[in-house]
Design brief:
The complex is a heterodimer of chains A (397) and B (258). By secondary structure, chain A is α/β, with parallel strands linked by helices. Chain A folds into 2 domains: 153 residues, Rossmann fold (3-Layer(aba) Sandwich), CATH 3.40.50.1100; 215 residues, Rossmann fold. Chain A is built from 16 helices and 14 strands. The longest helix of chain A has 15 residues. The mean pLDDT of chain B is 95. The chains are: A alpha/beta (397), B alpha/beta (258). The complex binds pyridoxal-5'-phosphate. The site of pyridoxal-5'-phosphate has 21 residues of chain A, from helix 5, helix 11 and helix 15. Chain B: Belongs to the TrpA family.
Amino acid sequence: MTTNDHRYFGQYGGQFIPELLMPAVTEVADAFHHYQHDAAFQAELKDLFINYANRPSLLYHAKNMSADLGGAQIYLKREDLNHTGAHKINNVLGQALIAKKMGKTRLIAETGAGQHGVATATAAALFDMECEIFMGKEDTDRQALNVYRMEMLGAKVNAVTTGTQVLKDAVNATFQDWTKRIDDTFYVLGSAVGPYPFPEMVKYFQSVISAEAREQFLYQTGRLPDAVLACVGGGSNAIGSFANFIDDSEVKLIGVEAAGKGVDTNQTAATMTRGSVGIFHGMKSQFLQSSDGQIDPVYSISAGLDYPGVGPEHAYLRDLDRAQYVPITDDEAVAAFDYIAQQEGIIAAIESSHAIAYAMKLAPTMRPDQQIMVTLSGRGDKDVAAIARYKGVDLHE
Amino acid sequence: MPSLTATLQAKEKFIAFTVVGDPDLDHTVEYVVAMAQAGADVVELGIAFSDPSADGPTILSADQRALDNGITTEQVFATVARIRQQTDVPLVFLTYTNIVFKYGYAEFLAQMQAHDVQGLILPDMPIEEQTAFLPLAQQYGRDLIQLVTSKSYDRLPAILQNASGFVYVVSSLGITGTRQTLSNEANEIIAQIRQYSDIPVGVGFGISQVEHARQFPTANAIIVGSAIVKIIAEHPYDATPYLTQFITAMKEAQHAQS
Ligand SMILES: Cc1ncc(COP(=O)(O)O)c(C=O)c1O
């Protein structure tokens, strides 16, 4: 519970998991810390990043948006251009490679929007491993295309029908599956959440985003960005976008969370705005919950941000006043989805559109010689049908 | 009131589990009293959690029914007070860490002391996370029940160091729920525990049939959860005779083993 416990970020983090999982999680932590310092592993991962995942991702100066908004220059970190279409692949390749080296033969994962499931199914196919994905029934309905995609890649997709049938229930189901098959199975956790070492490990693999962006900014503009914006579900693309700027106190770090129908409604996923300290999914962090500690059902148009908690390091960065977290509603995100499509010719994921929406508010308050980085965490092809439904448009294939 | 350790010192003891508020608080009182009368040596009271990660669908559904009834932690304590007017059967709570954390560790333990609930099982608080809680539990004289699985052997000395009351041996990998057949692994786990400690041992997870009751002769107690929850789910408002019959049969099977 103290800051000198390496499993904690301040008061947040820890390992609140069943005794049955402790040996499994400890084995993962040991392997991660070993391969972190293993040159051959690093070389293999780098090769996969460059030659398989299409890294480095572009840092693109969105000139049309910047001019239209009439304030700071907006730069998009194009994680949408990665293989499988989102930042999720960075973390998945890292974890799957560790799993392979540990001699595991089966990967399991939760997924919300389906992006992490697709990335995990992809790595399993590449590494010739068995793969099972757990996805809330509600999400299998709203992201049917991604379900089919995972199946094409050879994964088995389990629709989770317990609880609220969304991301948090998928996480529960994946942990439960792990307790039944620890020996041959590795749980590829998809965000910077869960018990230690997952928040640290996911950050480590996602930090490639800000490692590249820092160099790209210095090369392209001669200086660092004034603000870094990323959407926050569990917080993996955000912590990866922040990581290499945390020590640069002049760079503002802003996480954008999903307000759903509004932070004052019960249909929200704005954990930082509305949550309180709790213990769930193996970690002490901020959660949307009742005063008795029951985890709230959450809502967002975005399946990937529809999560009642947040990674422990984000809670810590906010306590330190190092990062700030702001809510964006469904309506604002959908407007941003349309805006960036029309201004820049980019169909962005509805998750990433939350970050774009905040950039649209922030940029006009800044000077044209200032610059904002927005992490475009994924591409929006998966969301086109849902956006049409949201607008009441009837699509027929 | 005898301690859990004293209560479970002999063999062939029976620990019965039910979720407070399933189907409602009045029936919880009735069923706990009935189970004690039928021979349950300890009753484990589940405080419902929205996301019970160690539990299978049977107990998850019971938790959901209780939460749908709007059960609060405060109401659970009030219900224990009613139970205490009718029976002095030793009680332990089973819930998840967040419920206790939100109530306040010390405040929760004080309520346990006031209502004479001797022990607490928190399936998501492994020894690594007990440093804040355990000294408080000791201060209030409450037992934090430790869980042990077949994967815990390297960790046994550390786990047993924190153990009091009894040790909960998880009979099979995975989550709670009734199973047709159970492996004998728990007997091996108990043998491992006995190398270090004489603390009473209860075996649970999956025990649901009279054959299972005979399967763990070295255990001090068997712990039955999902099978009891199922009876209450099938007969929500008139479960008493079914519970009595079940527990009587299980206890007879336990005695028949020796
Ligand atoms: C494109 C995209 N962005 C963001 C997220 C949110 O996850 P995180 O907060 O871990 O980056 C998801 C999750 O599914 C996603 O698919």
